[in-house]
Amino acid sequence: MNVVRNICVAAMVLGLGACASAPRSLNDNLIVPGERVGDVKLGMTLFELFAAKGNPRKTTPIPNTRATTYFYDGLTVAADDNVYWIIADDPSYRTDVGVGPGAEQILARGAYGKPKCVVTQEDVTLYGYGDIYFDVDNVSGKVKDVGIQRDSQACDG
Length: 157
What we know:
Elements: H1 2-19, E1 31-32, E2 36-37, E3 40-41, H2 46-53, E4 58-61, E5 68-72, E6 75-79, E7 83-88, H3 105-112, E8 117-120, E9 124-128, E10 132-137, E11 143-149
Antiparallel strand pairs: 1-2, 2-3, 4-5, 5-6, 6-7, 7-11, 8-9, 9-10, 10-11
């Protein structure tokens, strides 16, 4: 009788273990406002950025700062000692509601509501929401890229 009970308990434990979900992969191309784009997180160190993405395609110092812009396929990352903004221009990157490069402006505006600021230039209009912003092509009406920061300076200066 004890053998049967032990087998039943072991089967239940193994069955419950199989139901446990694996930890969520950060390499999911998800844009999370104020937090991350895929496996690149705001606040991560340069060493962590290198470990996650490897060598950038291109590196450009940001004038009059200690910061540098790192260019990867589909992502542009700015960092001094830590990552402080990330821009996605590859359509595989999306927010949880489907906003990303190539999405319609109406979807982005509908999903995030009234922007904190709007800056229109010749080719693009920027819609800033604090921890996320969208550049929208003025001709096609499609999102060109999506940027995240902890607190956006996208509309400053």
